[in-house]
Amino acid sequence: MQRKFTCIICPNGCEITAEYDTAAGSVAIHSIEGQTCPRGEEYVKQELTDPRRTIASSVLVRGGELPLASVRLTAPIPKAKIFDAMREIRKLAVDAPVVAGTVLIENLLGLGTDLVVTKSVGLR
Ligand code: SF4
Fold first, then answer.
1. How many domains, in total, are found in the chain?
2. Same domain for 102 and 67
3. Which residues pair with 20 in a beta bridge?
4. Integer Cα distance of 22 and 17 in angstroms
5. pLDDT per residue as tens digits for the range 39-89
6. What is the model's pTM?
7. How far is the CA of 2 from the centre of ligand 1 (A)?
């Protein structure tokens, strides 16, 4: 089968076409064309075999000048785990003040990524 990708690794946005087959849960890649550097090939291989995404979201802040603090993961996680990760993030509520860089969850769901605050929120 064939699948087209727009590489998101750099602003060039190369259009890349992959030919591959799937069998018994594994992917056999036959060709990757259209990338103009090796990073594009790596990106497509990752997308076909183990697609990952990062999360940028927000958590509730009690007693803060703002009701929410923005957060993000320090590393992308398997796409299939995004909903589980969001469920954990939605459970959180923190007390102001919240300082950017604070780790709110270490090793989220054992996935090797931390949830960190990206914007400080002071006291109300
Ligand atoms: S293939 Fe290389 S040059 Fe093209 S968008 Fe991806 S990283 Fe950029």
1. 2
2. yes
3. 29
4. 16
5. 999 999 999 999 999 999 999 999 999 999 999 999 999 999 999 999 999
6. 0.81
7. 19
In a domain, 79, yes or no: yes
Amino acid symbol at 60: L
What's the domain range around 45?
2-50
φ, ψ of residue 56 in degrees (nearest 5):
-120, 125
> Is the minimum distance from the CB of 37 to ligand 1 under 6 angstroms?
yes
Distance 4 CA to ligand 1 centre (A): 14
Please give the structure tokens belonging to residue 19.
């030919």
* Same-domain status, 46 and 63: no
46 CB-near residues (< 8 Å, 6+ apart): 52
Q: Count how many Cα atoms sit within 13 Å of the Cα of residue 119 in the half-sphere of its side chain.
A: 13
What are the residues facing 29 on neighbouring strands?
A: 20
